[in-house]
Design a protein that fits this description.
alpha/beta; Rossmann fold; Dihydrodipicolinate Reductase, domain 2; 2 domains
Length: 330
């Protein structure tokens, strides 16, 4: 790429595109924004950004593409970027099904194009601290992992069409499904339930994951009424201790474990750096010959596969074995 500022094609201008755009601006990128709606407004609010009228114009000569469009068009945009030979960052989920997500990964691999899914929670300080504690063995062998994520229901109708978006499981809970996989490894069984949606699309769901290791993960997601306070929690128990966090109640992660040198594990300082900027910086460095980020395209496929199993369990009322699902998807 040389020494010039990176040329970034940002596709989409919805809610999630704004922190991406600001992240790229902080990295000094020349940003081209293309979207069916809102490109001009987002470009006007973002230093170094311009709106462009076509996908072809956005991709022409771009160093990387950042896909922030609705889930249903992720595959088409990934394919277009790969065909243009442009390294690709794609918001989660990579695709609506694990089979199509795997197709995209294989396509990028065959073309020599770097592909990274946007599981940004791995860059949030509390979850970085959690992963470090697990990696360091502070909690011993993991036994039970509990995650919750609560926020206002999305206002775009397509989010609530499960065939289009995967609903709360594939759009919201996939963050914590990815965390469970990152911390406790592969999953063999998934059992899930979901409340019946109301007219205003308030919904709650829970998935129980059985890991190969024998650990159990409980992942709960809620789309509440408009104005619901955003909140995430986790509680991770192992043979060596317990680690807990509540985003609304605790300024730091607390840990009660043996031989960790105290009962409190402070979060690393974050200053004003957004996790979105951090993940994009790691992706950009990777495309320029730097180290692979703490995430792979295969991780993105795994998260979709587990989410898809949860959706099947909700529909059928039975436990879904991942080996069986993999055979069907193969």
């Amino acid at each position: 790429m040389g020494t010039h500022p990176p040329v970034v094609a940002l596709l989409g201008a919805g809610g999630i595109a704004a922190p991406h755009a600001l992240g790229w601006a902080a990295l000094g990128a020349q940003l081209r924004i293309h979207s069916v709606n809102g490109a001009e407004a987002l470009a006007a609010a973002t230093p170094g950004a311009v709106a462009v009228g076509s996908l072809e114009e956005a991709l022409d000569g771009a160093d990387v593409v950042d896909i922030c469009t609705p889930t249903t068009v992720h595959p088409a945009h990934v394919r277009a970027a790969v065909a243009a030979g442009v390294d690709t960052f794609c918001e989660k989920p990579l695709a609506r099904t694990a089979a199509e997500a795997q197709e995209l990964v294989d396509l990028a691999d065959a073309a020599g194009v770097k592909l990274l899914p946007g599981h940004v929670v791995r860059w949030f300080p509390a979850y970085e601290r959690l992963h470090a504690a697990v990696e360091n063995g502070d909690l011993g062998d993991l036994a039970v992992l509990r995650f919750s994520r609560t926020g206002s229901r999305p206002d775009r109708p397509w989010f609530h069409d499960v065939e289009l978006s995967g609903g709360i499981v594939l759009d919201q809970m996939i963050h914590d499904l990815d965390q469970a996989l990152w911390l406790a490894g592969d999953v063999t069984e998934v059992t899930a339930q979901q409340s019946r949606g109301t007219e205003d699309h308030v919904v709650t769901a829970q998935a129980v994951l059985t890991h190969v290791s024998g650990a159990l993960s409980y992942v709960t997601g809620t789309w509440g009424p408009v104005g619901t306070t955003f909140r995430t929690t986790f509680e991770i128990a192992g043979t060596g201790g317990l680690l807990q966090h509540d985003s609304t109640a605790q300024p730091e992660v607390t840990i009660d474990a043996r031989d960790v040198g105290g009962s409190t594990g402070l979060l690393p300082p974050t200053g004003a750096v957004s996790p979105y900027q951090l993940i994009l910086a790691d992706f950009l460095a990777w495309t320029q010959g730097g180290p692979r980020p703490r995430l792979t395209a295969a991780d993105g496929v795994s998260a979709v596969r587990v989410a898809e199993a949860a959706l099947e369990s909700i529909t059928t009322g039975r436990t879904v074995r991942l080996a069986e699902q993999n055979e069907v998807s193969a």
